[in-house]
Amino acid sequence: MQYTTNSEKETKKLAEKIAQWIRQAHYINVVALTGELGAGKTTFVQGFAKGLGIKDKIISPTFVLIRQHLIPKTKKILPAGRQVLFHVDLYRINSFQELGLKEILKNPDNVVLIEWAEKLNYLSPKNSKKIIIEKLEGDKRIITID
Ligand code: ADP
Ligand code: MG
After folding, report:
1. Ligand 1 and 134: CB distance under 6 A
2. Among 67, 65, 41, which Cα is nearest to 56's?
3. What per-residue confidence (pLDDT) applies to 141?
4. What is the pLDDT of residue 27?
5. Does the C-beta of 80 come closer than 6 Å to ligand 1?
6. What is the pTM of this model?
7. In Å, what is the CA distance from 50 to each residue of 5, 18, 104, 130, 131?
8. Per 3-state DSSP, what percentage of the chain is helix, strand, and coil (rounded to 5)?
């Protein structure tokens, strides 16, 4: 599926909808985000988090690599256990071992959004969705759900 957005706000709205859709898709708990710097990956996570009722300010984990946000009770992703959103940014990292990412991904109770996910080669299409954001002229973006 492919969408065009023309502003940051539209991308957030779309991400919010996708979050609501993923809430119903029991088998998906990982969202792999791909797109150049400034494409809108962090913006997407902000909209997605809003769709899960998260009120925290979502800022880029470029330096801390991983941030965690609690999903409020009423917006928990099914199955009912999924209560934490992990926001991961792999831009600056070349060795994933210390990150503990495999452990985080292995736990089906976690919802994991990963920026620069193309750096990982072990994501399974069984439980992950790929989102590709292409930056066009101005504020236009093409967002593909693979
Ligand atoms: P990334 O995480 O991919 O590096 P960010 O989400 O941090 O990108 O930044 C995207 C930038 O592009 C923001 O400054 C945002 O306001 C701007 N922007 C302009 N148009 C759009 C759009 N259609 N979708 C998302 N972001 C947009
Ligand atoms: Mg980012």
Report:
1. no
2. 67
3. 98
4. 84
5. no
6. 0.94
7. 18, 11, 21, 19, 17
8. 30, 30, 40
CA distances from 121 to 26, 57, 144 (A): 23, 30, 20
- Helices and strands per DSSP (H, E), number in the chain: 3, 7
| Contact (CB, 8 A) for 44 and 11 | yes
Query: Please, which residues have CB within 8 angstroms of residue 126's CB and are 6 or more apart in sequence?
Result: 27
CB 136 within 8 A of CB 11: no
What does R_g of the chain's alpha carbons equal in angstroms?
14
Measured from the CB, is residue 40 less than 6 Å from ligand 1? Answer: yes
Tokens 């193309």 belong to 118
pLDDT tens-digit profile, the chain (146 residues): 999 999 999 999 999 999 998 877 778 899 999 999 999 999 999 999 999 999 999 998 877 789 999 998 877 776 656 789 999 999 988 776 667 888 899 888 899 999 999 998 889 888 999 999 999 999 999 999 99
* Ligand 1 center–CA 44 separation, angstroms: 8
CA–CA separation, 128 and 90 (whole Å): 17
How confident is the model at residue 96, as a pLDDT?
A: 66
